[in-house]
Amino acid sequence: MFPMRTLYSSSNVLLTVPNLHSLYSADRCVLSGTSVVSIQDTSGKNEVDMTVPVGNPVYNALDPLFNYKPTFTCTSAARRVETIFNNPITQGYTIYLVMRVETNANTVYWRTLQGNFDNSAGFYLQSDLIPRAQTRDGGSAITSTNALVAGTNYVSCAVYNTTSSALYFNDSQTANAVAPTDGSVNDNPCNGLTMGTFTGQPASYTWALSAQYLGAHDASTRSKIMKYLGNKYGISTL
After folding, report:
1. Coil, strand or helix: which one is 17?
2. How many other CB atoms sit within 10 Å of the CB of residue 39?
């Protein structure tokens, strides 16, 4: 099944917020049977579609765990989805992600493709399921105060803004982690996204949507977007 490349309706809050850079959603997957081949960008900004370099994630057309909206599931055999942007993003920028960790071992939550892992801004999860955001020098990180819970859905938000970066999970007002005192996360441009794992270790996650915006969103904008996504996917947000 190859869906047409169409934008969301104007009622979609994501399109009403200024400076949308790219938008990837499981309901715009290109499929071969029930396997995901790619995910189309529907922001209207002509960004590059996400591809699947290793294996093929399994498409879930009506996922009851996400309010019967489409999702797909990646495993250690179908490790990740990724893209390199036509137009890289410089800080500040804001990224929203709707996902669920099923099982985990050194799974990348998401990261940019600028440089190697140690010098690339992004979240990563180890077996403790504590989210961390890589710092500019690779020696320290924004470390979440709470671990994610396997089998729980999250609307997450990452604000990358030089020395005031922060992570939010189902809460647009109170950060779950903020930039360390020695500096913010990597300040290289975000020239793409990778979501998934780079290893063959046991890992499984379900993914619904990712949206990228130019600029560091304030609490009001975060609330608008996170509540919209929570309502759409049946996830409780604050």
Report:
1. coil
2. 25
